[in-house]
Amino acid sequence: MARKTIMQEFAIFLNAKRLALGMDQGELAIKIFGDKNRRDYISRIETGKKDISLRSMDAILEALDAGIEFIE
Q: Using alpha carbons only, how large is the chain's radius of gyration in Å?
């Protein structure tokens, strides 16, 4: 079985953490960017359609009050 990439692991973690916090994608987009219209960006990350930089990953983790625990 092929290993998951960091982006795949992050996408799974992001979705699960966001849902555990009771946030929808728009609420997370507001928390990160101050703009609900960036919801599509969150959706594309969660579905694996968008690779992001480490800086963006760090901003998302900060908004979720999370660390790098998604990496096994």
A: 12
Q: What is the pLDDT of residue 38?
A: 93
How confident is the prediction for the chain on average, in pLDDT?
Answer: 93
Distances (CA, A) of 10 to 47, 53: 10, 12
Give the contacts of 61 (CB within 8 A, at least 6 positions apart). Answer: 67, 68
> What are the CA-CA distances from residue 64 to residues 2, 3, 23, 32 (Å)?
28, 25, 10, 9
CB contact at 8 A, 9 and 70: yes
